């Protein structure tokens, strides 16, 4: 009897030890960290409100301290797990930090809480996903935007034209950009699907319907027309696209060259991002608009930079060959006395030397001959500054410099 009772008490003590030690698998440092985090949460709840934490989050984001912004925003979410503003902000921060899984989790939670309001979460989910799943998220986001636009129009009519909206309004351009995202998916990921070409064209047409001056939509239409060998009409759309943003770029370049800029000067938001402008340069070359290309040295530099990056990552000779051939065509087409020219040479030299130096130097010799014919000798100074004559590669480059 006594022995049996003793065994039971031992078993009970073992159960208590096992049940009470929820942190048995954690190291002492991890247990200490967990306790400190719990204390920090309690201290935060006592010290800050959610609104104050969001202010801290925005302040950290303004200083580009996204890890700190994530910490403040996560604490705000711990206090109010169903706050949509906090969820959207945390999702954006995670996306900026490259934490795709966390961003996806947060945005899906926001969708669960409010599926019919707030389009931005659907746009981010569309970017995170691929294929038809991405199309579905973009399509849902478009539906939410169109409903919001109708609601805005109704509220504006009820309140009067002079009334200012309480929240940032959604524009037709936002809808156009979303349709462009769908078109790009059918143009790339889903290009082999049945009816992909028709769906791509339909999405581009809808993008132009909501914003006929959207340079991205115009360029997508040009790409589509080039793909079906309708070169002339594609060239028209391409030139129309470039004409819609090039004056802004030129104005920006002129203002940046001035010592003093006007205080009321606003940034030109109509200028497409670098990725789009690289595609523009490629399409201009394909359309044989060399004079148009030559006026856009910055775009050409971006083309060469992108190609050089591809070479550096995958060591693909094809991309390097395409890059240099395009450069040669542009050099030979007209006089390349451009202030941006040293950047072109710098991008060319940024390629993967170890894998491609022999091929590159053969092409480099041809480039130098073309430059010499055009009366341009500035690359030699750039080379001598960037590459000291050390090792066999340095001697080869120095030989090319002496040739120039």
TrEMBL record:
TPR repeats by residue range: 84-117
Compositional bias ranges of the Basic and acidic residues kind: 30-43
Disordered, as annotated region: 1-43
Biological process terms in GO annotation: determination of ventral identity
UniProt xrefs under InterPro entries: TPR-like_helical_dom_sf, TPR_rpt
Residue ranges with Basic residues bias: 1-15
Pfam families attached to this UniProt entry: TPR_8 (PF13181)
Gene Ontology, cellular component aspect: membrane
Origin: domain of life: Eukaryota
SUPFAM superfamilies listed in its UniProt record: TPR-like
Gene3D superfamilies in the cross-refs: Tetratricopeptide repeat domain
TM regions (residue ranges): 298-322
Alphabetical UniProt keywords: Membrane, TPR repeat, Transmembrane, Transmembrane helix
GO MF annotations, alphabetized: phosphatidylinositol binding
Name under which the protein is recorded: Si:dkey-12j5.1
The organism of origin for this protein: Astyanax mexicanus
